[in-house]
Amino acid sequence: MTGHTYLSKSRHGVYYFRAVLPKGVRAKTERREVRISLRTKDRAKAKVLVAVEALRLTETLSQLETGGTGDHGRPKPDLVLVENHGEIDLGETGVWGNPARSLNLTEVRNHVLARDNRTSLAAQKAAPPLDSLAAVVPTPTPAPPVKVPHVARFLSDAIEERVEKVIERFVDNKKQAISAPTADKYGAQCRVFLKIVADGRLDLKISELTPKDVRAYIDILPKLPTRVDSSDGRPLEAILRSDGPRLSAKTIFAHAQSTNMFLTWCEAQQYPVRFNFHSILKPLLKKPRIKSKKKVFSAQQLKTLFESEPYSTGTFKRASDYWVPLLGLFTGAREAELCQLETNDVRQDAAAGLWLLDINSDDGKRLKTGASAREVPVHPTLIELGFLEFVDGVRASETSRLFEADQRNKRGEFSGFSKRFNRYKEGLGIKSGPSHKLDFHSFRHTLQTMLFDAGEEEYVVNALCGHNPAQRSEGVRTYSSGPGLEAKYKLLLKLKFGIDFRTVQRNGWMPDPSWME
Fold first, then answer.
1. pTM higher than 0.85, yes or no?
2. Does domain 299-516 have CATH number 1.10.443.10?
């Protein structure tokens, strides 16, 4: 990107004029776009040349529109350039007006250069004839940005108003306020909306959306199969004929929310949205009542998980498969918080002498909320099982992350570890059902439930698990940073899971040979 309409730059540093042709012109020319090398690496020269090429393209398009020349033997429309608040304008009549006279492209170029050099048009015309463009452009002083003439703007408006492009801008705008994975999720859901209302028409403009389109979206959305992907190249009818379950009420609500958010943003940005679509989407914007499912592991299920053969024989192939469930059990931390841990995040507190996990957002790590940043004591059982020796081994290998083999996917999730844990859990017969949902997050629910049932203060439990503080007095909110490390440590010592950790193989995983290199 160069920050200038129609101006693009190749990987070799050469500037190009690039414009997508209107749909009607594509049928005549059998070309989707125009791309012309400006043969310069100088940005100041390129800004002038791109304006000239835009004018040249517009004259060509007008000839295609009118079928040749006008009544006076010259192409329509005749173009006139006037000074208007420091930019080149076409006057009130726009692209297809009837101005008084036309200027040739040499005059246009000189006009742009004169303004770019902060000189008057009269001074530019009085100057001696110039043999080359390089002699006109000043070199040491950077020139202010040249605005593209309105004659070229009719193409950019058509391009920028395409729903596909507007969704990209919407996502970029959201990334300034929320996490990139969440913004990308909104974008994917909005592209499902585009898939439904456009059904293959990539050039659909935001101004062309009608209430009929949105009503069709409301009718079709519940009929889509789960895991719907907007990049699916099949026609909409073929997707709807797919076998398998359909979108749940919760997912339909999430899609409708994202679409409503997008259309509301378009109105705020003054895109030419002709109708108020919120009232049409309103039936889908009511949050569905979903019966809550039990998410806590039972005592027997915990024994099954950690007294299994892989834990007793030490046959896990990855360090994360062995350590992350144990860390989740004894800390209540989220899956992503543990998978992204670095060796520097495991340290000993100088004052208390306790080992801790520093859960933070440093060096590109991500947290769900601001309250998620915290220090969690390392339980003595983890130390007995060799966790500190494991950390020292990773440090010796000069690897910064504890679980380097596990990477985030494009949505920011550690889906690889999550799938492996679910396969391990279900292989032991621990599966979700209609009334209960069991996954890695169940460790978090289990720890909190045990502590609350034991009568522990919600204030301390929330600090341990990274929730926003509750039930705090004004004095605590104002003068305290929260429970200290020792208070959290005493809380963890009260956990009794009923698991015989003597059967668990110490540091029981088999590393990939490449990890040892």
1. no
2. yes
